[in-house]
Amino acid sequence: MPDTGQPHGTKRAAPYDVLLVGVGGQGVLTIAEIIAEAAATSGLPVSYYPSKGMAQRGGFVRAQVRLGREPTGPNIPERGADLVIALERSEALRAVRYAKPDGEFLLYDDVWAPTAVMLGKAAYPTSEQVQDAVRKTGARLLYAGPQDLPLYKGQPVNDNVFVLGLAAGHSALRQVLDADAIAGLLCRRWPKAADRNLFGYQAGLAFGGEGEREAAPVLEHTP
Length: 223
What we know:
This protein is α/β, with parallel strands linked by helices. The protein is built from 7 helices and 8 strands, in the order βαβββαβααβββααα.
């Protein structure tokens, strides 16, 4: 996406729609809840609509967060999401049709292959297929994967907290919500894990930018 020329902290005019997709067990709804809470805390109108598939680990999960709108319907239209956040590769491919041509698509390229795929009875998309599909929409692609997770005391940080940092630091969401306010919500929500979560979140903010929080580098890497 072309540089808007706006400095970090300059607020983008709402409305702003965020679609989040993934599978059960990844913490997709947690990210959506924190985005919605950050908006509400800042006085920005927000509507939050979660949905799930099978009530088990690995079933699809989707959430729609619509910011800066008066009460509105739950469904972001196709080609209508300012930001798509996808935490699983196959669900990312299903969500491509929602990306705005001038929007952004954050692909966290995790693979949760269903049983049929593991048994060789069904195909699973390649990372290149998903990235190519995103590029064809005209949306700016932001890419990261499990290999990029930093270690905190020898263990990888939580994927969803890291991805939240990526969104807050490198997409236009940073012009809608304050990154420090989101950090405060993380601390209050899980006070016992505050240091770990802040570490993961700040790593997402700084990812690809050589530690420069205020930079907005293109995170388009070859997996």
